[in-house]
Design goal:
The chain is an alpha+beta fold. The protein has two domains: 71 residues; 110 residues, Muramoyl-pentapeptide Carboxypeptidase, domain 2. Helix content is 53%, strand content 13%. Strands 3-4-6-5 form a four-stranded antiparallel β-sheet, with helices on one face. The longest helix is centred in the N-terminal third of the chain and has 50 residues. It is globular. Bound molecules: zinc ion (2 copies). One zinc ion binds next to strand 4.
């Protein structure tokens, strides 16, 4: 019985020892974890005054950006070419599309700008890019170049359709004149 008690006491002692080791161990594990945190926090605290010297620079930079953006948003529209805003070529449907089922072909835009240069006066775009629904609505052919951003309908006030068509051909556009309606269809 004594032996048994002794072994029980021994086991208890071992258990106590183990627990304290684990307990201490958990302490010793936590401490190194905690220690690096402190210096890090100190470093951060140190770096703050250093970086607070830069705010003099950043407000200047950020103050310029919104001003530029405002100019783009409120002032000048996005230009397709020198005399034409991109909006003039937008699909004019009643919400069938976002307005841009595809982008306008830049070569077409350049040639229309050239055409405007021939007369030196405003050229009005009556139709630029078209979504399928809008194309069907206006009776456009199924293979219409308008749906690919490669065609536009336009007229030039004061310039006869025949004269405008001739000039459009000269700048390298394929032309379909609509004499009765007073405009030409150009495509590339
Ligand atoms: Zn549309
Ligand atoms: Zn057309």
């Amino acid at each position: 019985m004594k032996k048994e008690k002794a072994t029980v006491a021994g086991t208890l002692a071992v258990l106590c020892l183990l627990t304290s080791v684990v307990f201490l161990g958990s302490f010793s594990v936590r401490e190194p974890e905690h220690e690096p945190d402190l210096p890090r926090a100190d470093v951060e605290a140190w770096e703050v005054p250093e970086s607070s010297a830069t705010p003099e620079l950043t407000p200047e930079l950020t103050a310029e950006e919104p001003a530029d953006r405002e100019q783009e948003e409120t002032g000048q529209p996005v230009m397709a070419t020198a005399h034409f805003a991109m909006e003039e070529y937008r699909c004019d449907c009643d919400g069938y599309c976002s307005g841009w089922p595809c982008a306008m072909n830049p070569a077409l835009l350049d040639k229309i700008e050239d055409l405007r240069g021939v007369f030196g006066q405003p050229v009005i775009i009556t139709s630029g890019v078209r979504c399928e629904a809008r194309n069907a609505e206006v009776g456009g052919v199924a293979w219409s170049f308008h749906m690919r951003g490669c065609a536009a309908d336009l007229y030039c006030p004061g310039v006869a359709v025949g004269e405008l068509a001739g000039a459009a051909k000269d700048v390298g556009l394929n032309v379909l004149p609509y004499y009765a309606h007073g405009y030409i269809h150009v495509e590339i």
